[in-house]
Design a protein that fits this description.
The protein has 252 residues and is an all-alpha fold. It has a domain of 46 residues. The protein is built from eleven helices and no strands. 14% of the residues are buried.
């Protein structure tokens, strides 16, 4: 129950996603356990905590998605693209203009959780056998299915080339240790940000002080700056700790 609440709250924060929730809740499970030494040796709590948080994130990410148009992870970024394609723009008016579709989304999420539970209970003994497949064969199968899916959308070879270029870019980002999620969010939210920027300039009659005089804007800028500073401090501490561990010890 605790990791479900933590996962849902993390889902409210755009850009974090299930990976962050899983790691945080795994650490929470270790710290709150009376026998933390069992973790890493098959403790079932170490499996339940991150997986529960990962599932709870899904529901949380839909709150900023539908109300503000801000996807919480790459999956909801794809859903945002689908909504925009069908002329459904996230925001308060979305619940008034398209109530049927929104209720359909809610029911789909609930139904998905039920289906996942049933499928997992019935098929878990068979799913684990995928681990017996050699990684190189599994990789080839995934690549083939991705190519077929990209070509089948419009029967266009150009889409396959686009897939290859995007895959190469993603690989380079991973090699450079650059998170992929912000890139996806930037690609999806770019047109929306430009549109809202122009709207703000029109409303302010060309004055840029609207971006630093509004209390709401200052609040969000402050939160963004706080996240950046905390991340920089955390990375600096991790680097210093790694250097201390790697430094050779002087003989006594």
């Amino acid at each position: 129950m605790r990791t479900s609440l933590i996962g849902a709250v993390i889902g409210l924060i755009p850009g974090l996603g299930g990976d962050v929730a899983s790691w945080i809740c795994y650490g929470h499970a270790v710290q709150s356990s009376k026998t933390p030494e069992r973790f890493g040796k098959g403790a079932v709590e170490g499996v339940i905590a991150p997986e529960t948080a990962n599932n709870a994130v899904t529901g949380g990410t839909f709150i900023p998605l539908l109300s503000l148009g801000i996807p919480g992870d790459p999956a909801t970024a794809v859903i945002l693209s689908g909504l925009l394609i069908h002329g459904m723009f996230p925001g308060p008016m979305l619940f008034i203009e398209h109530p049927t579709e929104i209720y359909g989304v809610y029911l789909s999420i609930i139904l998905a959780y039920v289906v996942i539970l049933v499928v997992q209970l019935l098929g878990i003994r068979y799913f684990v056998k995928i681990l017996l497949v050699p990684p190189h064969l599994l990789t080839v199968a995934i690549v083939v299915m991705c190519v077929i899916g990209a070509y089948a959308i419009r029967n266009s070879v150009f889409d396959v080339y686009t897939l290859a270029a995007a895959g190469l870019m993603g690989y380079l980002l991973l090699r450079a240790r650059i998170p992929v999620t912000p890139v996806v969010l930037g690609l999806v939210l770019g047109p929306t940000l430009e549109k809202e920027y122009r709207t703000a300039i029109i409303l302010s009659e060309g004055k840029y002080d609207i971006f630093y005089t509004s209390p709401a804007v200052l609040l969000f800028f402050g939160l963004a700056l706080l996240v950046i500073v905390l991340q920089a401090v955390s990375s600096l501490r991790e680097t210093q700790a790694a250097r201390r561990v790697a430094a050779p010890k002087e003989p006594a």
